[in-house]
Amino acid sequence: MLLKIENMTCGGCAKSVTKAIQSVDPNATVKPDPAARTVKVETAATIADIERVLEEAGYPAAAT
């Protein structure tokens, strides 16, 4: 899945996003791109679970 995260603007944000996603699925493959403000995720978790945990972490996401 590819998610747009408007307020992911730096490497620190990318680490926070990765940590949040991996809290739902520790085996998830997370490829953040702060410059494009997107993150590519390969996970067994549902998009709803990923969006919820990102919202809780302060990084609201929208599927693209």
From TrEMBL:
Transmembrane segments: none annotated. Residues 1-62 form the HMA domain. Pfam families: HMA. InterPro entries: HMA_dom, HMA_dom_sf. Keywords: Plasmid. GO terms for molecular function: metal ion binding. This is HMA domain-containing protein. It comes from Ciceribacter selenitireducens ATCC BAA-1503.
